[in-house]
């Protein structure tokens, strides 16, 4: 008599918080696409996050923004979720599910803290305040474009939290070998992740024309991830700490 074994779920080997984060991000992405019309994505305006002085800012955006992704670039959500799947399972195993979820959300908020701080500095350097007086005179077109970008362009994506996950993985699994796209030789996490962080800092400071990536949000997520691992005293044999 032959026995039949039901195929296991594709989520069977994924840790519970990572699995649910993948599902929630997927739901948000599908909803964004379903509620679109003629190239307009209303959910982006309501759920992505704006600078706090922007008329489009809403309090709930500080949480919902990290579950939203670009509706015009599938690579945005694909790369973030791949990184979450690749590195998040190991971290959840080490931290435990409750602490890992807290870590993920706090690094997402940390990303926002640094991004808002940078934006506030830019606004202050132009307006003399972190808020813009509607009656003020803008000195030149460059300053006008800077302010318009800050006040009308939302930030969205899990990248800040993902950078927190990356830095924690590098701290706890420094000798794990990672394969980089288009690079045939595996590189240990303790080498490649710091290079990635330095690259983000360079890109953030350089402010290359046409670059719409919130590099300082990535750095904020990484910074908060580093601090949380240190503050919580998370250790693993073979890790840096």
Salient structural properties:
241 residues; mainly alpha; two-stranded antiparallel ribbon; 9 helices; 59% helix; globular; disordered N terminus
Radius of gyration, taken over Cα atoms and rounded to an integer in Å: 20 Å
Low-confidence stretches: 1-7
- Could you state the order of secondary-structure elements as H and E? HHHHHHHEEHH
Distance between the termini: 54 Å
Biggest β-sheet, characterized? 2 strands, antiparallel
Q: Report the portion of residues in β strands.
A: under 5%
Overall shape: globular
Count the strands?
2
Class computed from helices, strands and strand pairing: mainly alpha
- The portion of residues assigned to helices is 55-70%
What would the average pLDDT be, to the nearest integer?
87
Give the spatial strand order of the biggest sheet. 1-2
Q: What is the helix tally? A: 9
């Amino acid at each position: 008599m032959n026995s039949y074994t039901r195929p296991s779920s594709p989520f069977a080997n994924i840790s519970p918080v990572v699995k649910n984060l993948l599902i929630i991000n997927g739901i948000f992405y599908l909803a964004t696409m379903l509620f679109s019309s003629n190239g307009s994505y209303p959910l982006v305006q309501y759920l992505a996050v704006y600078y706090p002085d922007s008329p489009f800012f809403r309090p709930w955006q500080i949480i919902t923004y990290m579950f939203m992704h670009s509706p015009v670039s599938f690579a945005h959500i694909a790369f973030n979720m791949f990184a979450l799947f690749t590195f998040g399972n190991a971290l959840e195993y080490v931290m435990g599910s409750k602490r890992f979820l807290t870590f993920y959300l706090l690094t997402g908020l940390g990303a926002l803290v640094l991004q808002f701080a940078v934006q506030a500095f830019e606004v202050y350097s132009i307006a003399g305040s972190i808020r813009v007086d509607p009656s003020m005179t803008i000195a030149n077109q460059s300053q006008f474009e800077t302010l318009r970008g800050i006040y009308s362009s939302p930030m969205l994506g899990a990248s800040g939290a993902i950078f927190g996950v990356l830095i924690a993985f590098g701290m706890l699994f420094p000798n794990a070998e990672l394969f980089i796209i288009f690079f045939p030789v595996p590189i240990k996490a303790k080498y490649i992740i710091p290079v990635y962080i330095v690259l983000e800092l360079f890109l953030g400071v350089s402010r290359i024309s046409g670059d719409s990536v919130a590099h300082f949000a990535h750095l904020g997520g990484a910074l908060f991830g580093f601090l949380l691992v240190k503050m919580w005293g998370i250790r693993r044999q073979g890790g840096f700490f």
